[in-house]
Structures are given as C-alpha cells and as structure tokens.
Amino acid sequence: MLFNSPEFLVFLAVVYGLYRVLAFRAQNLMLLAASYLFYGWWDWRFLFLMTLSTTIDYWVGLTMERGRLTPHQKVAPAIFLSLCGLFFVGLNFGELGRTLIGQSTAMPLVGPFMPYVLAGIPAFLLVAALAYRYLSSLPEERRLKAGVKLSLVVQLGILGTFKYFNFFVDSFAELVSSVGLHANPAHLNIILPVGISFYTFQSLSYAIDIYRREIRATDRFLDFALFVSFFPQLVAGPIERARNLIPQLSNPRVITLEDTTRGLYLIVFGLFKKVAIADGVAPFVDQTFGSTGTLSWADVVLGTVMFAVQIYCDFSGYSDIARGVAKLFGVELMVNFNLPYFAKNPRDFWRRWHISLSTWLSDYLYRSLGGNRGSLAFTSRNLMLTMLFGGLWHGAAWNFVLWGFYHGSVLTVHRVWTATRGGAAAVRPLLHPVEVAKIGGFLLITLYGWLLFRATSLQQVVEFTGILFTGPISFDVAASPPRLSALIGMVLLAGIEIAQYLRGGNARFYQLLPAPALGQLTAAMLFVTVMGTSNEPAQFIYFQF
Amino acid sequence: MNQLSSFTSSFERTAHARRTVSILLWVIGWLVLFDIAANKLFAYPADPKATSAGKLQLYFDYGRSMEGKLKRITRADPAQTAAITLAGWYQPLKALDHGTAAKPDTITIYGMSHAVRLAEALERTSGRFHARSVGAPGATANWSFGAFLRDDGRRGSKAAVLAIMSSTLPMINTMSPMTWNISFAMPYTADRFYVGPQGLTRVRPPYESFADYTATLADPKRLAAARDTLKRHDAIYDDFLFRESMLDQSALVRLFRRAYQQRQQRLIADEVINAAGVKRESEQVRVANGIVAAFAAQARAEGLIPVIYVVNSLGYSDHLYQALKPTLERDEIPVLSSHQLISPSDPRGYLPDSHFTDANDERLAVALAQIVEREEAKALRKAPAQAGF
C-alpha cells in the first residue's frame, strides 16, 4: 500500500478512528493487525517471513538476557508463528479472502506449499527448542555472545537468501568464467520482499543492544511484534531503535493537539515532496537513464541533478509521512533527513542523509570494527568497509558497491585531510562565500555519487562519466521536461529549505510564522500536490531496498 | 525545553487550539484564493474556434468534464464550431489525398496521426505510390477498422494499411475518445468490436456524423440515450468524468478529476499493456488480434495487399508487436513494426509530441513501399503456379 494512494487514505482514516476509541492494549493489537494488513497488501506470503524474524528475535532476546523463557513466552509465539505459516503460506490466502466476500475464482483453498508448512513448522520448533536448551545452559557471557551470533546468522541469512543469493552466485560465475572456467550456477526463483532490509536491521539492533546491555528484553510478544512491523516505518524506515520505539509502544501514549498538527504538517510536506516533485521528475530521470540512444552532456548533467532531486524528495518525503502518521498515534520516530544538500563535507552529509541507516552502520558496524580507536589507516579501513556494506545494503548490484566505495573514499580522503591539516575549522556566518562554496563543492561530489547509484550498469557508469568529463559540452536535452508540479515544487521546496537553513536548521521554523503566512505556505504545498496527483505515481524508491 | 512542544496549562492548550483553527481557516481561504486565481489567470478561451490556448490554460482545464468541454467548443454551424469537433466522423468519411503528382499506384492508410504522417512521408519518398489516408486524431484500431469497412474509395488502392498503436491499445474496446481522452475533447465515435465464438461482431456507435452529434448534445433525451449506449458498450465510460456539473468551476476539482482519470486509465492500461509487458489474455489484445485478422481477410478478398502498421510508443518496447505476432504469422499478414527501425526506448527517435521524427517517418515509408513491392512480387510468383492447376 503506497502512502500516496487513495487506499492508504481510507486505511489511515479507519485505523486512526479505531485507535481513538480503543483502550491501550487493544490499540496495540489493532495496530499490529493494521501493520500486517499494510504489509500484506503487496504479498501476504511474506508476512510469514516477518513473523519468523520476529519470533526468533523475541525468543533470542529474552533467552540472552534471562537464560529462560516462561511457558507463555514459549507457547504464544509458537502458536502465532504456526498460524501465520498455515494462513499466509499453506493456504491460498488471496482465494480465502475472495471466498469470504463471495468472489471465489474456484481456485483450491490449500496452496502448493501446505506440505512444506506442515513439515517445516514442527521441524523449526524442534530446532528452536534444542537451540533454547543449549543457549539456556550457557553462562551469561557466553549466552549473550551465542545469542547475538544466532540472531545475526538468522537475520542476515534471511536477508542474504532473499536479497543477495542470486547476485553473489552470478558474480562468482562471472569471476570463474573470466579465468576460463565454466560455471552454471543454480538460481533461486524468488522475489525480493518489500522493506526486508529495513525490518531485519531494526530487529537486529534489538538483539545487539541486548547483547551490549543497552536495553532490556521485552516480555510482551505483541509489543515486540509491533516494534518490528509498525506500519508507518515498516517498509522504508526510518530504521528505528528498540530503545526509542519499544518504550513508546509498551506504554500508554498521549496524543496532543500539537502532535496531531505537527503530524498533519509532516504528512502534507511529505506528500508534497513525493507527489509534486519526486513523481514529477521521475519520467525525466527514467528517460535519461533508460535511453538506448546517444546522450548529450546536458542529458547526463540534468538527468543526474533530477535524480538527486527525485531520490531526496522520494525518500525524505516517505520519512516525513512516516513520522507524521506515527505522530497521529502518539509515536515519535527519529528524524531521517536534515537538509542533506546543505552538507559541507562527507562527514556532515552522513549526519544529514538517511540518518537512521548511517547511525545504525556507525553504531553496529563501524564501532564493532574498532571505529576510530586506532591509526588513521585503521580508521580509514573501517570507514571503507562500513561504506561498502552500506552501499551493498541498498541493493544487490555492483553499482551500489561502487557508490559505497566512492563515498568510503571521499570520507577517507576527508578524514586524512582534516587529520593532517589539524586545528579547528573557522566559524563563519552561514551565508559567508566560503561556506556557500563548500556547500556547492560538496554538492557536486554528492551528485556524481548519485550518477553511480542510479546507473543501470557499470557500462553506463563508464559511458556517462565519459560524456560528463570528456564529451563535448552540448545543451541539447532529449528527455521531455519535468512536470509543472515538479518545477513549481522545486522552487517552493528550495525556499523552505533555505529558510530552514538560515534559521540554524530548525525544522519547526514554520511554526513561528504568523497564521496567514503558515496558512499560505501549507495551502501552496497542498495546491501543488494536487497538481502533482496526475503525475504517474511511482513506487517509493527505497521500497526495493 | 522547547516552548512549542510543552503545554502545561489549559491557557496554552486553548491558545494552541485557537491558532490551529486559525491556520486551518487560513489554509482553506488561501486554497479558495488559489483556485479563483487559477481560474482567472489561466481562463480557457471562450471562443470555440480559439485553438491556441496556452499551456497553463490547457493544464488547468484538462480535468473539466467531457460534456463541459464539448458544450464549450461545439456549435451547430460547422463554420462556428471548433475544428476538432469536425474531425474523425464516419459519416461522411473524409479521405486525404497526399500530393497531386500522378503516380501509378495508391496505398490507403487508416489510423491516427502517425498513419497520416506515414502517408505524407510515403508521398515524399516514393515515386511509385500515391498516398491516401483516412484518419482521426488519436484513432484507436477499432475506429480505423470501422473506417476501412465504410471507405468506398479503398477499392482503387494497391494496398491497405491499418495502423495500431501500443499506447492506445487499452482503449480498443471503447466507442469514442470522449470516454478515455479526457484531456482533449474529441467527439467523434467509433465501432465497438467484440470477439466471440462466431468471430468478430460489431456494434455501431450512437451517432456517426457531426450533425447527429450536435443534435444529440442539444437534446437532453438523446444525450441520455447516447450515454446509455456508451455505458453498455464502452469499457471505459465513467459518469464522473463524462457528465457536466458545478464541480467543473473549481480548478482544484478539475485537477483531482484529471488525476482520477489518469489513475483509472493507468489501472486499465496495466491490465493490458505497459512498459513491463502485455497481457495476451486481455479482451483488448484479443480484439486487436481479431481486428487484424478480419482486416487482412477483407482486404485480400478485395484484391488489396493488407499491411499492419504497428506503432510502438516510446517506452513500450515491442510488446504490441509481440502480442499481434501469432495472428500476423498464422495469417501471413505483412507487417511494418516501428521497432524494427526505431528503438522504442530512444527519445531521440520521437518528437516531443510523441510522433516519430520526420526522418524516421520517411524510413518507415520507404520500408512500407518495399513491403508492398515484396508482397506484389510474391503474388506474381504464386500466380503462374496457380494457373497451372
């Protein structure tokens, strides 16, 4: 279900209405059901994968911390998982739904995977019971280590199988064939479940935080399941931390008028960025990067700039809507973007862009590798490994690895340069020409990174780079221009972001505007968003990650 | 503590509530103002014959109801009405003769503007073939086949060409662009074809001439009857998009209506053909194959060489050609598919208005002449053998 679809508007209205009339525990149960419905809208079958991931980390978390599970803690998730397996994988759930509303297509209600479910679930429960016996028999330190390893293996195993298996197999086959050998690798005929990278990382952070004794394991399976699946941020983040989200889900929430108005503003702002701008420039970008003809210098430059606009408005728009929707339910999600194109250096950029992922990588990977607790070379190695992993997180393709390598290199160069230069950076006014030049300069570096990111192949990277740096400068543009909503929207957004930057980055600066001015700003965003509704709605880019 | 996020007293809560209501009222007020401003600043010309509305005038008018648009541009007097309202009628069917130079053979091409442009290019490039076209703006293949069946002038031709385009394939089961081309009002009508066990069957539209159309538009009873026919036989007809109402006065509602129409059309198109592929089992693909087969059979029965001109729209790959291929191969129907000469993923092969560039049209015209000559030669080779029996 897309945030910018009429279905979601109806869904949100119903869920919000129910939420306001239910008591706290019933609210959580309803939010869990709503989250599963939201996710199952794409494909019901993958709900089982999420419940599997949820169940394992719930058991592992408690076992790591306490060494034992109560009978209820063992049985309730097992029943839940079994029922999910039967319903979402064993039965033909779509046909079951159609039968219930009297629109049966006469397909069998029992799906082809039912035998596997009937054999697989008891087998899984048996293995889980054995693992539990083993883990609970260990002393605390070893139990914590074994538990976190188990969580890492399972979560990364699921992610690796669904997202990276075919990529690594193909890459291996290419490597083998490059030395004259022939390989005919087996492929998994699978599709990538939406948002798998987001919820596996979120779940992983829970196990790692317990291992580090930074949080307590949660007793309530329902709350944990809601933490993994909370629909506003389920498929494209922000990647929430257990220490932030679980306490909000485990305790009664208070919804204030201020939360509601701020939430609604974020929803309007997010929809404006997504519908008016991102979808309005998408055809231009698609035509440029999908072209099989000869492209000019201007095609490559404008295509890349428009992609920078598209990915920012698409992804930060999603994050804004997610945060706004969560606020309607009294939940505060972390800020995911903070004026990233105003960054003055790579370190600054990663504090502003996809903050939930960059802090995740920093906390759980960079820190685990040793961070900057060593020589400059050691730090540089850690930076590079972290960024390579970050690139690969975005997708199973070499251009994402290249993008990670590029940003790793930029970060390393910056780190070496600042270390050798020494001294504190001069403090200058925001509009000082040097500061503006820094922003402009680093924006160019970011833009080239987006070219690597969006390219459809390594061959296209080489071709576009050639046109960019050595081709004749031509201003002939082949793609049809961006939509009117995008052109107006970009001007409006630039105005809003410059105003925010000049107020020290305060994202709530608009609240200080007089009512007529704030009303005008909101109405302008709404009007341009309505103009954008006739743009072809594209799926949010980050869903595929 | 942030003063904006902390409300400890009822006074502050009341103040915040007041400000929220005030902002909400300002938002509504500004939206109304923007709406009025868009209507005033980008008002569509009232003169039906004014054909040069600006881009923004067009943009804010796209979502007006079809009846609203038609009433604004239609006058009963052909001299006073918008030119577009006179285009594409079956009665009388208008054929264009391109060029005046005497040439030995004629090729008649049926279809949309791509077909007319191909005819123009053929006239420019061929010393042998005279081009004749029967077209309507944005014509779907059902219109073109209906025009072919009504065209008495086709009998003098050497070949008949039927154009079919990927982007309008999903609308092959409609009766008029009035129901699917909401952005531009074009009132002409088309035959509706159904594929059944007995082959292709035809349902005629509620009216086929400009005179009948204007009489229908002026008579609420006839208009209601025409709407009923469209509801029954036009797969895309939608009252919300078609019928005039007070909502037409709001620029915002018009933008919403256009978005709704685009969404509906996308949903329909996704069930037939899009950038990802084509659904062979869809009614539209079955009708398209039925039309192609019936057209070829009829043309051959009259001694004409049938050619199918497949226009692969930008971004649609060769999906339409692939969808028609089984019929084309089974019935050995000559085909000119644009993808063989122009990549459907190269924007430079197309003009900004989605037509092929002139140079590409000429390449297609040369290829068409070669196809006709090849078919002719094939027929000549077959003829003595047949005489021998």
Shape of chain A: globular
- Quickly count the helices of chain B: 12
Largest sheet of chain B: 6 strands, mixed
Q: Rg of chain A from C-alpha positions? A: 25 Å
Q: Largest sheet of chain A, if any?
A: none
- Rg of chain B, Å, rounded: 25 Å
Strand content of chain A: under 5%
Helix content of chain B: 40-55%
**How many beta-strand segments of chain B?**
10
Overall strand count of chain A: 0
Helix vs. strand class of chain B = alpha/beta
Question: What is the general shape of chain B?
Answer: elongated
* H-E string of chain A: HHHHHHHHHHHHHHHHHHHH
What is the ordering of alpha helices and beta strands of chain B?
HHHEEHEHEEEHHHHEEHEHEH
Structural class based on helices, strands and sheet pairing of chain A: mainly alpha
Oligomeric composition of the shown chains = heterodimer
Fraction of residues in β-strands of chain B: 5-15%
Please characterize this protein's 3D structure.
The complex is a heterodimer of chains A (545) and B (389). By secondary structure, chain A is mainly alpha-helical. Chain A has helices spanning 6-21, 24-40, 45-66, 71-90, 93-100, 114-136, 140-178, 196-211, 221-229, 242-250, 257-290, 297-328, 346-350, 355-369, 376-394, 398-421, 433-454, 458-470, 484-502, 515-532. Chain A contains 20 helices and no strands. The longest helix of chain A is centred in the N-terminal third of the chain and has 39 residues, at 140-178. The mean pLDDT of chain A is 89. With 389 residues, chain B is of the alpha/beta class. Chain B contains 12 helices and 10 strands. Chain B has helices at residues 10-41, 55-59, 66-73, 113-125, 141-150, 210-218, 220-233, 239-242, 251-270, 283-301, 319-330, 358-388, and strands at 96-98, 105-111, 129-135, 159-165, 192-196, 199-203, 273-274, 277-278, 305-311, 335-337. Chain B is elongated. The chains are: A mainly alpha (545), B alpha/beta (389). Chains A and B meet through helix 11 and helix 20 of A and helix 1 and helix 9 of B.
